[in-house]
Fold each of these.
Amino acid sequence: MRTSYDAPTTHSRPDWWGDDALCRKGGDYHPDQWFPEDWRRGVGKLDAITAKRVCARCPAITPCLEGALARREPVGIWGGLDPDERTQLSNDRGRAQAPAA
C-alpha cells in the first residue's frame, strides 16, 4: 500500500504570491515584526518600521496589500501598510469610486 507521501504529484499548485514574499523567506528579521502589539509606539513601532522596509523591496507587495484589503485584515503589516493606513486607503478608494451626487 502506498501512503500519500509516496503518491506521484498529479496536480500542479497555482502560483501564490506568498511564495515570493520576503517576509516568508526568513532573513535578519522575525515574523512577529509584522504583527506588533502596538504599531504606533515603542518597540512595536520599531518592528512595524522594519517590516515596512522589507515590504518596500518585496516583489509580492501589491498582491499582499490587495489581499489584506479584500479580507479587511484588522492586524499586522500587510503590503507595507499598517491597519490605520489600510483603513485610510480603503476609505479613499471608496470615495473615489462613489458616484458623484
Note: The helical segments are 42-56, 61-71, 83-97.
Amino acid sequence: MHQDIFKFIDENNYVSVMNNTKWNKLGVAIEANEDKEPCVRVKFLFEDEPTGYSLMDWNFENHNCTLFEWIDIDPIKKIRIGGLVPDKEIDLSTHVLEILSQNNIPYSIENGMYRVWGYYASGNVPVFV
C-alpha cells in the first residue's frame, strides 16, 4: 500500500506538509474535549471528492493518515434542537485556533473552514496562516 501512495504522490508532484506525529497530535487535541469537538471533512488522496462533514474517529489504527490530502475543520458546531427550531450554533474558532497554534499545525482558510494540508500539488502552494 505504501508503495502505491508514494508512487501517486510522486506522479502528481505533491508536496508533503504534515507527518504522522503532527496528525496524531491534532487528533488527540481535537478529541480531548468532546463538547468542543468540531466536525471535519476529509479529502483522501485517491478520492475525487471529499467526505461530508461529521465527527471523526481520530484513532489512527483505523485510518492511514498518509492518505489525507487535507482535512477541513468547521469552526461552527451545530446542535440540532428540533424540526421547527433552528440549530444552535457554537463558535469553536478560538478553540480550534488554539489547537492549531499549540501544535504548530500549518493551515489555510478555505471558504471559512480551517484546512489542514497533508499534501498540496507543487505549484499550487496554499496561503498558510
Note: The CA atoms of residues 29 and 102 lie 9 Å apart.
